[in-house]
Amino acid sequence: MAKTGPSRLRPLTLRFLNAPAHAQLTSQEDLVKKLFLIDFLWIGLAILAGLVWSQHDQNEYASQLDHLGMSEMAQEYVTSSSRSVTKAVAELEKTDFSGYQVQFVTKQLVYVYQRGSVASLPVETGQWFSTGDFASSLPVAVVGHDLADKLYTGSNNQRYLSVNGQYIPVMGTVGTRKGSPLNKAVFLNTSPSMANEGLTLKQVKIYVDGANQHSKTLKTILRASRVHRVHFSDSDAATWWRAYGQTALFCVLLLMGAGILSLLMVTLIGPLQTSGLEINMRARYLRGVLSSCASHVGISLFLGGLFANWWFYFTTRTNIWSFLVILTIATIIFLRYLIRRKDRTSATT
């Protein structure tokens, strides 16, 4: 009679206990192969997201150029003070904050004071004002390219613009698409040591961009009675929809596309190999499936994001990467729900 003792039973028992782990490994390898094909769809989705946010940035930048470089976050300081612009600029010079621009706007001219680096206008020839220009007593100008033919050329090919009977050297020209107000603008530097023709604060519109956190101090310096967001003439419903509404709609569509791809991923997984597994092993197996799906999604969206950042135009890359991170997190949460629901359905059937 054959032996049936412990020495004969032990190999069979070990093979039985190791079967779930082996099945899990084989299932993971098959899953990787199936998900490889769908990775290209995730990369395409990330590229589409890049296209959406690139178009958003281009629309926003075009609007900013129409507003002479002022963003939608710019503030207008309303004042009836007879204080001179020069004295106000002298006090601005004494402050310790930077990274902002002030425009004192008349009907024909825009007097500019700037501290630190701010968003620049598209310079076609020459250059924009330097830091030294905002400290100099010598006036210089930057003009829109539609005014280039009205300039006078002096010695050494220096061009001049006639302003109030005075010939002011032109440092450069700026311009954008046809019909933009920027193309006809005249910018003059202003400084604490410049006369500015005795211009007073009540004679100009005062726009400040990049210093909203210092509005209390600026309100005192500019003798403003109130401060509010700039209401540009084209800030109507249609403009808002073009700048924000369409981007929001496309983002919702991209999220729906991610949901469809998630459903496709879970379908490609096929039947979950959880039959006969104990609770801990079952949970471990499901985490492995989710981890495989999540890694494919994360890596694919990252690669698509890299391509989009290389191919498309962005004024800031924070928006596209923030959206891709949100898209990845939302997808993983949805995948977790789908995988657990599929597991419960399999257990029921």
TrEMBL record:
The chain crosses the membrane at residues 35-53, 247-272, 293-314, 320-339. Keywords: Membrane, Transmembrane, Transmembrane helix. It comes from the Bacteria. This is Membrane protein. It comes from Lacticaseibacillus zeae DSM 20178 = KCTC 3804.
